[in-house]
Amino acid sequence: MGDNIIRGKAFVVGNNIDTDQIIPAQYLNLVPTIKEEYVKLGSYALCGLPDEYETRYMEPDATQSRYSIIVAGTNFGCGSSREHAPISLGAAGCRIVIANSFARIFFRNCIATGEVYPVETDCDLAQRVKTGDEIEVDLDQKTITIIADGTTYAIKELGAVKEVIDAGGIFNYARNSGMIK
Amino acid sequence: MGMTITEKILARAGGRDNVVPGDNIWVNVDVLMTHDVCGPGTIGVFKREFGTDAKVWNKDGVVIIPDHYIFTEDEKCRRNVDVLREFVREQQLPHFYEPGTDSYSGVCHVTLPEKGHIRPGEVLFGTDSHTCTHGALGMFASGIGNTDAGFIMGTGKLLIKVPVMLKFIINGKLPDGVTGKDVILKIIGDLGVDGATYCAMEFAGSAIEAMSVEERMTICNMAIEAGGKSGIIAPDEKTIEYVRARTDRPFTCFFSDADAHYQKVYEYNAEDFESVVALPFSPDNVKTAKDAGDIKIDRAYIGSCTGGKLTDFMFAAKILKGRKVKVDTFLVPSTVEVEDALSKVSIEGKTLIDIFREAGCIDPAPPSCAACLGGPIDTFGRCNNGEVCVSTTNRNFPGRMGSKDSRTILASPYTAAASALTGHLTDPRCYLK
Ligand code: SF4
Fold first, then answer.
1. What is the domain partition of chain B in residue ranges?
2. ipTM > 0.85, yes or no
3. CB–CB of A174 and B159 under 8 A?
């Protein structure tokens, strides 16, 4: 998944952001393994968020978001198994989602695809930062720093899946361990 | 120490004597299911990783069921079905339920058991989160994404973490008019939408034993709405009879040991359950139908893998018989088999389809997922504006059934039908003698 220090602008969302809000069902006709459709998926990332979100994750007609870090509450990515969800975020330029917790299939799809880094924290980061704030995540030190005031918070250990992430997804992991050629 | 049914199935699939929650194990997969939404991406991953002339690990283990976007003019949706068709031909896959032909069936989670692909003791992964439905027949079944599915397609294996075990014991007799849908909504309301994340939810007790196989499927179907990795119910005579009527394959039944360990055991009295609904915008926003307040509805929707099986239509018909609906009432049988049964099965001498017609329901659409997940703009029953829809489906997140302005209220078929009669959210029990 590349560098171990990720710095960028945060986009802040609430609890239980489900996959229909990340990528609404009408765009599931796009096939992520086709290059142009991958880009298109990115352009719709988080477009299902209710209108209360005045700042949109994607500007109209943009293919890249200004926010490379998503900060969420609990149960991010609940709902469907659509891999289109982490893929649309990855295609839009999101590198990392920091949440208090993730729904299982979304988390797994992040790991399997290597599209975005799913990181959990116990701190109420979504309360401490607002959309547009600059933050830095250091995956080696396991810290999150809010640039404006320099405060740091811990991220949780990834546990056994770290090996899969470090290998770059399930295919590389299986190749490294000799399970497949 | 003893093991749960889930642990026993995973141990067998992993070639081990035992497993405990948290173990990361490679399991051998018996069946991989994919559909038109995730199939093309899965095939893309499979070819990218294993090469363009790679062959699937076991032709008989791959089941392809296009169901989501079938009756639409949307070009890309049609293209996706073409991708599946081409792959099936190239790989010579025997289990393809092809739209536009006699083999077309409809919603994957009702097709799988109907066509004999579900057998106790086996391991099924599907590129759909409601794959957990099939635990109702005593198997381990869970939803995955395209990349994992592409991996299974080539290897027949997947690396998984053995889930934490939760048990839900429901003893006693459910009140009349209270169904499996009410039971699972109540449990989701108690647990919250992430209350069972990473857990296997096992359902047991005399109320579960008294349920039909289809009603048990409704319960396990919504395990994912509490975040569950799987739902499961021990097989019994009803399970075996159901499976035997549909496949000759041998299978093994597993049962939880009396001293199996659960992280938590929840006990419920069946008598305490009531007709409940989940109000927008979350499946855990659960209220009893009678206390939800006076909520006007614009339409009712009976369909999906959760609420579009034959028993669901029978429940609805009991309420609608001899009465008239006040709002648009959409019916979408989940499969062709269910659609056919609507004109064969009758209640007090009248077929279900006649009951629905006389009640003023809109003629049923052909089987598919239809508006359960919104879908393309021309989808039957899709909420294109700010409608309030009482629905037998499983999710009511913002925009789930179409427009972000629409609102979905999840309910049992009884409650959906009763609400269709009054135009307001209604506890169905006043219509049951
Ligand atoms: S009916 Fe609804 S929940 Fe079931 S598989 Fe189709 S879209 Fe998913």
1. 5-268, 278-431
2. yes
3. yes
